[in-house]
Amino acid sequence: MWNPAGTPIGNVRASSTPILAPHGCEVLGEQSFRVDSIQIRVIDVAVVSPVQQALLDSDRVSQPFTPTLAIEIASPSDKLVDIFTKALDYIRADTEMA
Q1: Which of 6, 16, 31, 34 has its CA 20 to 30 A from that of 53?
Q2: Three-state DSSP class for 35?
Q3: Would the pLDDT of 1 be above 60?
């Protein structure tokens, strides 16, 4: 999904891409990933390793794996319990850093 600079997601993508790209990582915005057999989460900013890039399928609504790094951008209306629930979902799904 397109996330222009000046938006929170666009800013995170723009600032992290120069750091991560030399390591072969790709930074995606608002991408769906499967976190377990029935649950899919749309991650604000996801970092995908070079190995995972080979698994990316643009024809799928959601990717069948979790990214190496999941970044959620909290808004003032987000409840702390919901943020922790997302983080636990990512950790349980073997996301290396959530």
Answers
A1: 6
A2: coil
A3: no
